[in-house]
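SEVERITY: medium
COMPONENT: batch folding queue
REPORTER: lab tech (J.R.)

DESCRIPTION
The queue accepted two submissions in a row. Attaching both inputs and their returned C-alpha cells so the on-call engineer can compare them side by side.

ATTACHMENT 1
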Amino acid sequence: MHSYLRSVGFRNEIRKRQWKEYLDQFAKEPDYMKIIQIDEENNMVLMLKEVAKDMGIAMCGEEDENGQFHLEYYYPYSISHVVSSRTVSTFSKQGEKDSYAGLCEDYRVGVSLIYYLTNFMEMREFFSKTGRLPKGNEVCFTGLSDRGKIILPIRKTKQQIESAKIASQKRTSMIESARSGDASAMESLTLDEMNLYTKLNRQISKCDMYTLIDSFFMPTGVECDQYSLMGDIEEVELLTNSITKEEIYRMMVVANDIPLSVVINKDDLLGVPEKGRRFKGKIWMMGEAVFS
C-alpha cells in the first residue's frame, strides 16, 4: 500500500527518517481521531491527516495506559461521497493487522469485488459490542492509481447509448437469475458470449481494440484488491498536496456502470483528463461501507 503514497502527492522519494518526522508531526496535530477501548490498559486509535480535500495519510495504532500513542501501520487514503454499489458486502480480517477487506457480488462486473475497508473503526466498534461482524448495505469506492493514461472516447449516438444501457441492465438481470439456478438464463448468457466472441474476431482485424472495448473492470496482479480498469470520466478536479505541493487529479470514472473516484498524481498520468474522455490504469481499491 505504501507504493500508492505517490497517488496522494508523495511521489518524490522520501527517506525513512523524514517519513518518521512527518508521522510524528501528523500524530501531534491530526485532523481526525477516533479511539476505541480494547481492554483495560489499551485503546485502539485511528488518526487522519488531510493533505488535500478528502485525502491524506491514515495512521493506526494503540494508546497505552499513559496516553502514549504507538504507531502500528499507516497508509494513504481518499474518501468518496458517491455510492458505487448497493449490493451486500461481507468482511474479513487481513492478517495480523487490525484491518479488514470487504467483498461484494456486483453483477455489473461479473466477478466478486474485493476492497480495503477504510471505516474499519466503525466495524471494530460494532464487533466489540455485539461479538459479530456487520454486513454492508452499500459502499463508496475509491481507487488510488500509480499509473494511468487518458484515451479518447468512442463516438456514439443517443440511440446507441440508450441501447447499451438497456443491454447492460438485461445482462445484469440474467446473471442474477443464472446464479439463482435459472437454466434458461445460463443458456442465454452462453449464447451471448459466443456471439460476442465471433463478432470481436470478425472486427478485430479492422478496428482498434479500444474502439471495440468501451470499458472494463478486472482484477490484476497478486493482490486481491488491485484492479485494471477503463471507464468514462464524468468529473475532474485538480488538487494540491499542502505539504509537498505536488498536484493530484481526482476523477469520477464510470467503468462497467460502476462509478468510483480515481486519485492519481499529475506526473503519473499520461494525457489531459477531461469530461467525456476515458481513463485507463491500475488502481488499489478502497471503500467506505454503510453498515446494517
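ATTACHMENT 2
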Amino acid sequence: MRGEKADHQEREEPVARTFAAALLAWYHENGRELPWRQTRDPYAIWLSEIILQQTQVKQGWNYWERFMQRWPKVEDLAAATEDEVLREWQGLGYYSRARNLHYAARQIVDLGHFPDTLEEIRQLKGVGDYTAAAIGSIAFGLPAAVVDGNVYRVLARHFGIDTPINTTEGKKLFQSLAQSLLPVDKSLASHLSPLTSEYNQAIMDFGAIQCTPQSPRCNVCPLMESCIAFREGRVGALPVKQKTLKVKERHLIYIYVRCKGETAIHRRGPGDIWQGLWEPLCLEINEETFDVRDRLCASGILLPLTSHLSPLKQNVRHVLTHRILYADFYLLEVGEKPELPSDYVWIKESELDDYAKPRLIETLLCYC
C-alpha cells in the first residue's frame, strides 16, 4: 500500500515540472546576457555573486570586469593586499564583502583548489546558504536551489504565501519549497545537472525582470493563470516582510586638515561602519548646537594660532542599511601640523587616491 508521503510527492511533481518548464521557456527568450554566465570558472562566478550580494547588476558589472582584469585568477587576488582590494571596491559599499572576499581567496589558495561541494563552499568567508547554492549549482551543477529576494518574491506571489520572509519559519518554508521545485534531469546517471544552473538563473532573472517589486508585468506573465496572488489581487501585498529594528541616526563632523600640501587621515577600526577604510579627522556629536573649535579642544586637539577653519558643506545626508548619517564638512588650514591622536597619519594630498575611502568621504573631497 502506497504511503501518504508518496502520494503527496506524486501530486506535487506535475506542479513543479509545469512551474519550472514555464520559467525555463521564459528564460530562453528573456534571460540576461551577463559575462559571468559565459564561463564555468568558479572563481569568476564566486566573484560575481559576492559583488551582487548588495549591488544591482548594472553597477556591479563594471566592478566585476575590473576585478577580473586586475586579478584574473584567485591566486592573484589572494596575493593582493587588503588595501588594494578595498581601493578597487571603493564605491560599492558594504565593505565587509571586500574584506571577506580577500580572506576567502586566501582560504581557496590554502585549500589548493576551488571547493566543489556545498559544505566546503559554505566554509568560505562571507558565503552563506544562498551564495553557496548559486556557486555550487552554476559552477558545478550541484542540486541546490537559490533563495534570494527575487526568488522570495516569485514564490510568495505565485503560491500565495504570506509567511514573513525574514522570519525563521519563513526562511525554512521558502527554502524547502524552492528545493522541491528544482528540476532534475533523471536521464543522467549523476545527480549533477545543468538544469539546476539554468533554472536558478531563470528564477532570479524572472524576479528581476518580470515579477518586479513595483509594477510587475502580470498581464504578459507566463505564470499568470496559476499565480494565486494575481488571481486574488494580492500581488502588491506579497511577499510579506516583518518590521525590523528602527533606523538609527548619527551626526558626524569631518574636518579636512591641510598643511603645506599634506593632510591627516586615519583608518576606521573594527566594530563600526566602514571598517578598514580611511577618513579625515572625524568627531561624532549628539547635541543639536555645538562649536567645532570647542569640540576639537575637548577632544585634546589644540589648533595653532594661525589656523583657519571654514565650513564646506553642512548636514549632508548619507543612508546606510540601519543608519542615517548627517555629516558636516570643514576645511582646516594650518601653517604647522597640530597634534592629533596617534592613529592619524600625514600623507601628501596627491596620494589620497591611493587610499580606500567611504563614498561619503569622496563627497567631502569634492568640496576641498
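NOTES FROM REPORTER
Residues 4-30 form the longest helix (27 residues).
No errors were logged for either attachment.
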